[in-house]
Design brief:
The complex is a heterodimer of chains A (424) and B (162).
Chain A lengths: L4 H9 L10 E5 L2 E5 L3 H11 L10 E4 L9 H16 L4 E2 L8 H7 L8 E4 L13 E4 L2 H10 L1 E5 L3 E7 L8 H12 L8 E5 L8 H9 L8 E3 L4 H10 L17 E6 L6 E3 L7 E3 L12 E4 L1 H4 L2 H11 L9 E4 L4 H9 L2 H7 L3 E2 L20 E4 L15 E4 L2 H10 L12
Helix pairs in contact in A: 2-5, 6-7, 10-12, 10-13
Chain B lengths: L1 E8 L6 H4 L10 H5 L10 H4 L5 E4 L11 H8 L4 E4 L4 H10 L3 E3 L1 H6 L5 E5 L4 E4 L4 E4 L5 H8 L3 H8 L1
Parallel strand pairs in B: 1-2, 2-3, 3-4
Antiparallel strand pairs in B: 1-5, 5-6, 6-7
The chains are: A alpha/beta (424), B alpha/beta (162).
Chain lengths: 424, 162
Amino acid sequence: MGMTMTQKILAQHAGLHEVKAGQLIEANLDLVLGNDVTTPVAINEFQKIGFKEVFDQEKVVIVPDHFAPNKDIKAAEQCKKIREFAREKQIKNYFEVGQMGIEHALLPEKGLVVAGNAVIGADSHTCTYGALGAFATGVGSTDMAAAMATGKAWFKVPSGIKFVLKNRLQGYASGKDVILHIIGMIGVDGALYKSMEFVGEGVASLSMDARFTIANMAIEAGAKNGIFPVDDKTIEYMEKHSKKEYQIFTADEDAIYDEVYEIDLAKIRPTVAFPHLPENTKTIDEIKEKEIKIDQVVIGSCTNGRMEDLRIAHDIIKGHHVHPDVRVIILPGTQKIYLQAIAEGIIQDLVEAGCAVSTPTCGPCLGGHMGILAKGERAVSTTNRNFVGRMGHTESEVYLASPAVAAASSLTGYITNPEKLEVK
Amino acid sequence: MEAQGKVFRYGNNVDTDVIIPARYLNTSDAKELAKHCMEDIDETFVTRVQKGDMIVAGKNFGCGSSREHAPLVIKTSGVSCVIAQTFARIFYRNAINIGLPILECAEAVEHIEEGDIVKVDFNTGKITNVTKNETYMAQPFPEFMQKIIQSNGLVNYIKTKK
């Protein structure tokens, strides 16, 4: 019986010729990740297990990115705890403030994940690395602790949903719109416990940044992982960023999928998820001009803080000034992205347009710091969740959108279709 | 192993941000965190919850973040069991890994109401609604997960294998 791409990676890492959906396996891991919110809990558990050393100092990654640079004293204590743990255990891939970026933008850029890897991270958006043809999934702190100790994790082998992409995106439609469209279609539990495998001739037209965005939000459909096949673009990206050996897995032709959806990329429209669930989507054409007035725009996060995202936002904003009633916060995903944006003149133009540009941090995405909403305030955000209270007050609202829609909205003060943007 | 308690009833897609808002995650102290359990969906939960009480909710309970703080604050609040139609997968893992009993049972979710007294037999998966004098059967856990639960979590399970 045929296996999906995900099942093949899991089988290899479990030392098995074949696995079936629903089977419980123990897999060897290529990388174990944690951040400043989840690692402190993992350290407590790691110490309880009684292991003295991590299984491999090269294969543990710790990134203080959520409440870092330290937002308050308690956050400072948590970051101190993980820093000291990283030093004591001689963890090679600990990224201090100044070198760190938002973890899921940082790890691919540093070449730490390549195709064929099995990766767990104590962060739900670990599924981002599926863009590289790796199996990557979010877990909790105890799983991280056990994996740091043993290099293994238990998994229930997921069944798969296949998304066959055809044609190519048009105009301002982006990877973000593809994944918001899919979540709107199947719901926030539409892929619960399953893999989302993105295939078809349309994949080739998607940039790596678009693929990272799409895989990143697989968790918002409840999925265990999202994964893309490895093609020339993936190989070019890996050869540019990594020295690690990669391994290409392809789904069997007779692999069994629970469902198959065909997605016509040419028909994807800029899409916005309304509060308070990522599945509450409307296309930009369904939103009236001046229907949704906004107070803040956030462009960044592990979903949309990459170079392509900043370039799109810059193309729309440059030469104009953001609306006086809107606070526009830009968070480049990593220091390398920040530097590239400086080199391209993007940062200068955005600051001159009235945007606040921050050092990389998850910050406002999870209501941590750097742009919290007051009661009744609304934000258009390129982040990934719009749950009650996600970015601040329980009576604030987050509208999830692409960098293009967020940038257009920052100029008008309302959720705006970038295609119809008219600014003085 | 059995548990009995009063039910707190919630709807679908109860996410980890309402179970424990991220603004409090600057500490890993479970008791400190538990003061804010369910705060953004039910402000009075922490003042009303008593040891042994249960949470019953719809589908996709615990969706969103991977924060283990979510099952941890529920367990620390004294909740003896969460029954839902389905659980988000990371929450499901985390609950098993830290030893918070959870059960999937659509029938129970359909019939149990806020304030009902419910008894759960974890060995058989039998759920008894004492208030309504009804019984429902939950899916039993696979054997491997039962071993983790019996060891009171993954850490202890690994220790026994070490």
